Every structure is written in C-alpha cells, then in structure tokens.
Amino acid sequence: MAGIVSYGAYVPPTRLGFSVIGGGRPKDGGPERAVAWNDEDAVTMAVTAGVNCLRGHDRAAVDGVLFASTTHPFREKQGAALIAKALDLRRDVRTADLAGSVRAGTDALRAAFDTVAAGSAQRVLVIASDARPGAPGSGLERAFGDGAAAFLVGATDAIAEDEGGFAFSDEIVDVWRGAGDAFVHSWEERFVVQEGYTPGIVEAVQGLLAKLGVGVGDFHRVALYAPDARSHGGAARALGIDPGNLVDPLFGRLGNAGVAFAPLLLVSALETAKAGERILVANHGDGGEAFALSTAAPIEKLESRRGVAWHLERRRAVQRYDRYLKARNLQAAEYDAGTGPGLSATVHFRERDDEIAFKAQQCGQCGALQFPAQRVCETCHAKDDFGLVRLSDQVGAVVTYTFDHFFPTPDPPTIVTITDIGGARVHLQLVNLAPDQVRIGMPVEFEFRRIHQVGGRPNYYWKGVPLAQ
Amino acid sequence: MQKDAIRDKVAITGVGCCRFGENWDQSPSDMIVDAAYEAYADAGIDEPQKQIDAVFTGSIYSNKGPHECSDALKLFGKPVTMVSNYCATGTDAIRCGVLAIAAGLYDTVLVVGYDKPKDRGVSGPTVMMDRVRDLPQTPAGWFALCAATYFDKYGAGREDLARIAVKNHHNGTLAPNSFLKREITVEDALNGRMISWPFGLYDCAAQTDGAAAAILTRADLAPKDAVRVKGVTVIAGPNPQKDPGNDFLSWKPTGWAAADVYAQAGVDDPAKQIDVAQVHDCFTLTELLTYEDLGFIEKGSAKEHIADGRFELTGELPVNTDGGLKSFGHPTGATGVRMIYENVLQLRGDAGPRQVPAPGIALSHNIGGHPTACGIAILGKS
Predict the structure, then answer these.
(1) Model pLDDT for residues B309-337, shown as the tens digit of each residue
(2) Calpha distance A122→A158 (Å, rounded)
(3) ipTM for this prediction
(4) Contact in structure between B318 and B167 (CB atoms under 8 Å)
(5) How many degrees, rounded to 5, is the angle at CA A35 between CA A32 and CA A37?
(6) Whose CB among A151, B29, B93, B137 lies 3.0–4.6 Å from B83's, allowing a Cys bridge?
(7) Domain of B341?
(8) Cβ separation of A416 and B141 shorter than 8 Å?
(9) Which fold has domain A3-327?
(10) What's the whole-model pTM score?
(11) Catalytic residue among B280, B305, B330, B365, which?
(12) Sign of the alpha-carbon dihedral angle for A401, B305, B374, A369
C-alpha cells in the first residue's frame, strides 16, 4: 500500500493585492494573490517545494521524479530532469513531466501511488507547480495564484495512506491555453461552472464514494479544486459537505494555483491533521478525479514542514501594478533579450554541478571549500584532489555587499553580495528583502531562481534569501 | 626577480597624448598617430621606421591585434606585440618595453596604449548577460565591495569619497587634453544618480576614447637629464570575490605590487620619498584605498588625510594632478601610458598650472580586473 511519506510547498512571498491590480494602492488586509516574480517560474518554485519536502529525508533514496505543470517554460526539454539536477538526486532516477491540464498535479500523485504499489520504485517525488498567465485586467488574473506542492510517495512510513481513487475523462472547451497563446482563455463563466466544473467535480466525488462504499460525512477534511470562491461554495453545497470540513481554498490569499491547487490544499490538510483522519481530494479539468487518504501514526511524528501556512505568513506586498507587469514580462521593451542562440550549451554542460546543483569542491588535502570547482586548490595548491559538496542546503553569511542600479529588474536596485558558505566565497544576489535590511554577517539560505532569459529561454542559478526565522 | 635589473637602465625620452573624450570623428589609428607622432617629436625622432626597434601596444577593446598599431604607423619588419591586462594594460605595456631594453635587446622602443570604448554605443555600464553566475557583472559592482566593510570598520562614508571626486574634477580643469573640465561640489557628488552603492555618478570614471604613447630608450644613449625608470612591476592576484578569508578592506594586488616596485626603486619610506602620484581612480574608493595600500598613510586613516588636503595639488603628496581617470578620462589600454605622460611632464617641470614643486620621484598605479592585477611604475630624475 502506497502513501505520502513527506510533503513540502512553496508559495512566492510576493503578493498582488486586488486593489493594486489596474493601478491602485495596496490595502492592508485586503484580498490578494501570490505571484511568482521576475526570477521565478514553475521550475524554480518546484525546486524549492522539492527541497522543503525532502528536508530530513535522504535525497539518495529518491527513485523517481514526476513534475506536473501547465506552465513549464520549455515545450521540449524535460522539467523533471532539470529539477532532479537542482535537487542533486541520483543519476539513475526515473523522470517524467505531466502537463496539459490542471489535473496533472493529482494525475502525478496517482501515478506515483500506483508505481510504488506495483513495486517499481520505493520512493517517488511528485512536484506540482504552476504560474499561469491571466491577461492583465481579466478575471483570471485576479483568480489565479502561483505556487508549488511536493510529496514524497513511498510504501513504508507513510503519514497518509492511499485508499484508492476514481477518475473520468471529459472533452470540453471550457478553460484552455493554445501552444502560441500568451494567456489562459476561459469561455463564459456561467457555462464553465454550470456545464463543466460543478457537474464534473460532483461526478468525481460521487464516483469515488460509490467505489469505496462511503459517504461525504466519513471524511474529516475535503480538499476541492475550484475556479473561484463562489463555485467552490456551490460545489460543496451540491455535495452536501459540512463547511467545517472544507479545506480553506485560500482565495484572496493565494489563488487558484493550477496543477498545484488541489495538491496545496492537500498539504494544508496534512499540516494540521492528526492520525486516524480521512482526507478526500477532488480535482477537475478535462474530466475529474477524486481520491481518499487516511492518516497514520507517523503523521504526528513528522517534524514541522515549510508547507502552506509557513509560506502564507511570509508576505511582501507589491506596491505598484507596473512593477508586476514588468516582473511578468507583460510590458513591451525596445530590445528583446530573447533572440540569438543564447548562452553556450557547452559551457552550461561543463558547469552544471556549479550552477544547477550548486556544488562546491572540497580539497582532499586541506579540506577547504572553494567555488566554483577548479583543478588547483586556492588554499593549499593541491592539484586534482577534491570531492563535491552541496552548498544549496547550507546556511551562509554575508561578507560584504553593494546595490546595482543597472541590471534589468522590475524593482531596482539589485542587492549583490559576497556570501561565505562554509569558507567558500560566492558572489550571489540577495532577494526577498529591502536594501536597508542588508547587514554584514547576516545569515542566508539559498533558492533556485531564474537569472535571465537570454536566448529566449530561462537561464537558472541560485540566489540568497534571508535565513527564515 | 633581480631587484636591481631595471633601475636606471631605461630612460623615457618622449611622450605624447591625444585628446581623451568622445572622439566620434577619430578612428583608433587616428588617435594612435596623434599620440605616437607627438612622442616622436618630443624625443627628436624623425625617422621612426629606422629608429624604433620594437613596439608594445596595449588595448582591451580592439580585436585587431598588434596590426592595428603597426598599420597606422607603418612600422613593419620589426617586433610588434599587443599586451592585454584589463586596466593594468598601459603599465604592463610599459613594463614589456622596459624589460626588453633592460635585457639588452633594443635601443629604442615605442609603447602605445589606446582604446575606443565609445564605439560600442553604450553610455554607462554595459549590462553583461553572457553567463548566469556572478551577475550583475560591472566594474562599479566589483570595486564597490570594499565599501560596506571599510565604512563599517573605519567610520568613513560617501562624503570622504566625494572629496576625492571634487579634487580630481578641479585638477582636470588644468589639463588641456582632459575629457571633463568642470568643477563640482561635494553636494553635486552626493546627489549624483546611484550606479552601484556607494558609487554615484561622480564616484565613477567615465570610459572615454584616447591614446597615449611613450618612447623608451637605453639610459646610456639618452640625455643626462632624461627621466629614468626606477622600477616597474605588474602583479597578479586572486579574484577577491572568491579569495577565501578576504577582508575587503584593501585590494591585495596593490600592496604586493608596491612591495616589489619599492624594492626595485630603493624606496623604503614612500610617504616621504614619493613626490607625486597618478593612481587608478576608476572609482573614488579605489583612490582612497590606494593611498593606504601604497603605504602613503596608515590603513583606515584616509578620511583624516583627505580632509586635511594632503593629496590636493597644493598638499604634501599630490595625487592625480591631471584629473585622473575621473576627469581626464579612461580609455582602458591608454590610461597607464597617460600616467607616464603626466609624470614625465611633472618631473621635467613642464606641467604648467598643474606643476608640483620640484618633484624628484613620481609613481603611477593601475589596477584592473576584479581587481586582480596591479601595475606600478616609478620614474625619477637621475
């Protein structure tokens, strides 16, 4: 029997208040949505959620990675393989991307359960991540939110065991994004909800209940996907779910996070659940599915995780709408950085351990760390005698800093530091704080981010963030 | 290195320097010809194709190699080498010329430094996006990294840097070939737009076009009162950004280069023995740190000496008498040679309104890269 062994999430700290959309001022305590900033995308969020899920677990034990997203920045170049490298997993992991529908997040989780139950793998990492583009001024811009959820699925030590699922497929043009489209489209809202969403989510849940021979009242927590708050309430009423058992869908705080939406609600449920509870998860898109989990004793021993609640508390409100437009590349620029072949693929190939896995070398003779790896030790001059050490999960300290006013960013200046990580000195940008908050000696941790889009594709590296208190 | 191998073996008998600035109407070869022919005339060379034995040229933006210089001057059939060492290029090219003469290979060598950064169509720092690591990549960003730590430890601030900018702007008004001839105030400097904290517009030297040249010759073939090379060095250092344990209170290559060149020149008390200095004020903080790292003053004491006017034209040790990189301009390959030009004029007593009273020993200093290389030359009269 397969289940969830661990979980993690990532919700960007940047929050776009509804009052700011269209050009107004931020309103304290008003409704808002989470928004991935200019250096974030589905891949970077997935890496951080994966890091958070794997805290306290052996990365070398992961046998497979399933990455679900409708907003992976590449049409051809696997997200799961890139994420596996950034997480410094074994080379012989099974990687696959799932895409094309907001259902891909729960599809991936079901696939992982089945894989583990069949004995094809012991531990599978599932990450669902989305940053869906809603056209400026549209209802979707307001309803969407960006985020990622990650689960480690396994056959032993599960905190929540899979009880089975039900799924059906439906051909309908309700919400879609074509291959060349900049934004997600939606047909008239009443059609989308009345003919698509509500009957679909009801069919998924009732199908599951019939299969398991249970009723809604048998579940302590119910996590329901929905396009918006009103349709969420409507679906709950149609299914006769007690409002006290509904997992808060977080509209007005996070938003509909696409493939990550139902998974994030599941994380939210797991964060506060005790052993012996039953959780129902239902998702909808091009059909629907629902599945049931029952929590087990290990859930009460799992040390607290960076999940949904942890991230919701950490907010940086967008002050101006034009900054958001710039961050999401929604403003025209004179020279597009996108044309040309981009950064050298051969240089990237040689530097993957440095730049994607963020590994330093440790000298076999004197033990000094240095970054990037080179053949001669800077400290003791030993040649070709070193091993690699992962920097991405360490804590560093700021040695010195400056603030650059020219690098393209929606909110200059860019904070640039020299950060000491275990003795290795690394030149790193620092984000998630204002310039006047930088201090010599302040502790920092590291997040995978998009540095720029030279060559018309995202180019990734790591940045520092203040160590979370 | 043999410490005595250079001192008094090489003389500088001619110098030339074209106008530095936005030389839109001059090609690199136009500037090379202006600077080299002024140096020829100064040295009394009227048949350069016969009298020049070898050429060292320095440029970091040119991708044409030494041919750009030999073709401009029609110097063929002899060794022409291009030297590349970021901002230390000029001093490095001088060093190569000095070594070649001191080693006994040539009697007369031409050194030409030049660059035309303004042909790139960029005002201010280029935004480089050729990698993912170490971005933003700007000299202002690299050289600013000593500020937070130095200010924190020694209580200095932007005002101290502003005074250096004011001094160099003033000195530039007295140099005919300088790019900027404009007095500024401390307040102007503090209110300039920010580039990379703490550097505002007036803390940063502008890149300009320009060329400068020097004629080096065997000291025993030169007039008795010719300026002589007492020592010259270029030292490579680690990238301070990844150098383990770097304290970001000074730039190591300057200290190392100073120790080497002082040993060559027989200088053991630089504060007393150096009469005038041209230092690499790519940024105001670089000049400040250089006062200390060259041993003119104690580490951490710069702000007091700056306030006292020690390094003004009228002070005890005038620094950047022609306005420095800040006002004269900074064509990377030319700057080290332009400093030699100014020091030769000073030692000869030909610096006009910028003249320092009777200098005997002059020092020029370039630092470049992250910074990772420093070149220093010391000149004197017998």
Answers:
(1) 999 999 999 999 999 999 999 999 999 99
(2) 12
(3) 0.91
(4) no
(5) 140
(6) B93
(7) 10-120+205-381
(8) yes
(9) Peroxisomal Thiolase; Chain A, domain 1 (3.40.47)
(10) 0.90
(11) B330
(12) negative
